[in-house]
Design a protein that fits this description.
The protein is an alpha/beta fold. Helices cover 50% and strands 15% of the residues. It has 10 helices and 6 strands, in the order βαβαβαβαβαβααααα.
């Protein structure tokens, strides 16, 4: 099977490095490499079966975070792997919200880059351990001592909420009523000082539930 790729990056040396890697991979076909993010969306409208877009984050015209938001909105089946020289936890959170499939630091080894590409093409997500650790530490470094312990049932409900199960699905899985699920949801929001699903998901990640 041949996978069609697009590379979006304004650093020629990095692009050349990627191309040298993919030259030895007959299953990879880079059909577009560009330093102009604005050209990607029009290209996608006239091109079928793009498997993966590898994009930098810091770019002129449109940054990679904004680009990923546009692409995932209009072309949700296209996979995206972001690369950057930064380990900004807020940036990581935005990428996750946009539905991006992976993130690798530009200083990562060839082996890790290939692993990320292979994992994403296989249908899974890949985020480097380094950025994931930085993200978790930044989220909870100031909150950890203030967290209220959760019961085993609250942890079960929190995990299912974070995995985006509906109230009815949670009720069915745990053999409780919809009203009870809503009560747990309200209590979790209060206990964890969270405002919405994204806030609960952050805590679920920290607690190792996801």
């Amino acid at each position: 099977m041949i996978y069609k790729l697009i590379i979006v990056d304004d650093h020629k040396m990095f692009v050349d490095g990627l191309m040298s890697i993919f030259e030895d991979m007959p299953e990879i076909d880079v059909i577009l490499k560009t330093d102009k993010p604005k050209t990607v969306l029009p290209f996608l409208k006239h091109t079928n079966d793009i498997a993966l877009i590898i994009s930098d984050i810091s770019m002129p015209e449109i940054d990679g975070i904004t680009l990923s938001k546009y692409i995932k909105k209009d072309f949700p089946l296209v996979k995206m792997l972001m690369v950057s020289m930064h380990n900004n936890p807020n940036m990581f959170h935005q990428l996750k919200q946009n539905g991006v499939n992976g993130y690798v630091h530009k200083n990562a080894s060839k082996a890790e880059l290939l692993k990320a590409v292979e994992v994403i093409l296989a249908g899974e997500n890949y985020f480097s351990d380094k950025i994931f650790k930085t993200y978790k530490e930044s989220l909870f470094s100031t909150q950890e001592s203030k967290q209220t312990p959760l019961s085993s049932r609250e942890l079960q409900v929190l995990e299912l909420i974070a995995r985006e199960h509906t109230t009815i699905e949670i009720a069915d899985k745990l053999f409780i009523s919809k009203h009870t699920v809503e009560t747990y949801r309200k209590n979790l929001l209060l206990k964890l000082d969270a405002k919405n699903l994204a806030g609960l998901t952050k805590h679920a990640i920290y607690l190792g539930l996801l």
